Amino acid sequence: MGSFRVELGANSHPVHVGAALLDRVGTLASEAGLKPGRAALVTDSNVAQLYAMRALGSLASAGFDAKLIEVAAGEASKSLATLERVYDQLVTAELDRASVVFALGGGVVGDLAGFAAATYLRGLPLVQIPTTLVAQVDSALGGKTAVNHRAAKNLIGAFYQPRLIVADVATLLTLAEREFREGLAEVIKYGAIMDADFFSTLEREMPAILRRDPGRLAESVERSLRHKAFVVQSDEHEGGLRKILNFGHTLGHALEASSGYGSYLHGEAVAIGMVAAAQLSSAYAGLSADEATRLQRLIETAGLPTAMPAGWRSEEFMRALKLDKKRAGAGVEFVLIDRLGHALTRKLGFDEIVAGVA
Ligand SMILES: NC(=O)c1ccc[n+]([C@@H]2O[C@H](COP(=O)([O-])OP(=O)(O)OC[C@H]3O[C@@H](n4cnc5c(N)ncnc54)[C@H](O)[C@@H]3O)[C@@H](O)[C@H]2O)c1
Ligand SMILES: [Zn+2]
After folding, report:
1. I need a labelling partner for 246 at 20 to 30 A (CA). Which of 5, 59, 183, 348 fits?
2. Which region holds residue 303: left if phi is over 0, alpha if psi is between -120 and 50, else beta?
3. Is pLDDT of 328 > 70?
């Protein structure tokens, strides 16, 4: 098991990564100083079938009497309507302000249960137990919680740090292949923007990672989380450095938002966005052609798409791009890499973006 702390002053908390940690969440929660007693375990319908019993058993043996709160699997559950049903069940469970909310599942459960924990009784202690690769390397750490509004994704939310993160990489063995590969886009991202050595390791070990070798998975998840922790520690509320985590996301989000391109999963759109960002990095930040090619190859090896769809410079795409949150006048604050393992931001005009992508 690999363990470290996210240092955020009063919001500091431990992170544990390893195999078969699900059976130890109760003990780990006690060790983190959480008070046994009434609690809630929020999960979704898929994860409930696979892992709820084991998690509940581990919690019970450490004295956490957790009520199981199950929501339907899928993004639609990140809604105010589902949130209200979660609140209803927290009321029924008669939780008090020291009662712990355990979020067991992917990013949907983590964001939803996290926001419920942030707001119910003005804040209950939260434990993230991520079970998808996306959640283990990205959403569980950083304190962003939210539900969607019909007008936009993640419109209603809060920064709220968990008291503990337990990432059991053995749970990834049941994840569908496409969802697993999607998460690899974010793993590759950390190598590309922050750690050339990690990038080389991924180049070497991608076949073992794709076979979901537990040792290699634990290593990749822990290194990814340590990188995210480093960024979040220096910029908890996304005022500066945290922006580099958006590498590949400006064009990726525009692809996701403009319909007519089929339905890319987030990580697939980010994969394409990273390849395009590497081309822009060669054009505007001096990234060598060789390193741009290595990034594209690694993304390909991970089984992710790399090419912008034919005719991507559509009106709809440009409209989505111009709506980007990082917009700055006639362009966007764009994350580029000048070499593998080092990111920077530069303001790029929309015309420069369109011209710089192959
Ligand atoms: N808070 C953040 O910083 C942050 C960062 C990235 C993404 N997100 C959010 O995360 C969400 C996406 O998360 P996701 O990709 O994990 O999706 P998800 O939570 O919908 O999980 C994907 C699917 O996998 C299933 N699943 C989960 N764990 C499983 C397992 N171990 N075995 C088998 N099936 C399993 C789920 O039931 C679901 O059907 C989005 O809403 C996104 O906005 C948040
Ligand atoms: Zn992402």
Report:
1. 5
2. left
3. no
Ligand number with the minimum distance to the CA of 267 = 2
Contact between residue 170 and residue 207 where contact means Cβ atoms under 8 Å apart: no
Helices and strands (DSSP H and E) totals, the chain: 14, 12
Instruction: State both tokens at 314.
Output: 């559509």
User: Residue 260 pLDDT more than 80?
Assistant: no
Percent of the chain with pLDDT over 70: 98
Residue 261 has pLDDT above 70, yes or no: no
Contacts of 203 (CB under 8 A, 6+ apart): 294, 297, 298, 301
Task: State the first-to-last Cα distance of the chain, in angstroms, to the nearest integer.
Answer: 43
- Which ligand ends up closest to the CA of 133? 1
CA 26 to centroid of ligand 2, rounded, Å: 30
Burial 318-339 (b: 16+ CB within 10 A, else e): bebbeebebeeeebbbbbbbbe
Q: Any catalytic annotation for residue 5?
A: no
**Nearest CA among 308, 230, 241 for reference residue 268:** 308
The Cα 55–Cα 86 span in angstroms is: 19
Give the atom of ligand 1 at the shortest distance from the alpha carbon of 109: 19
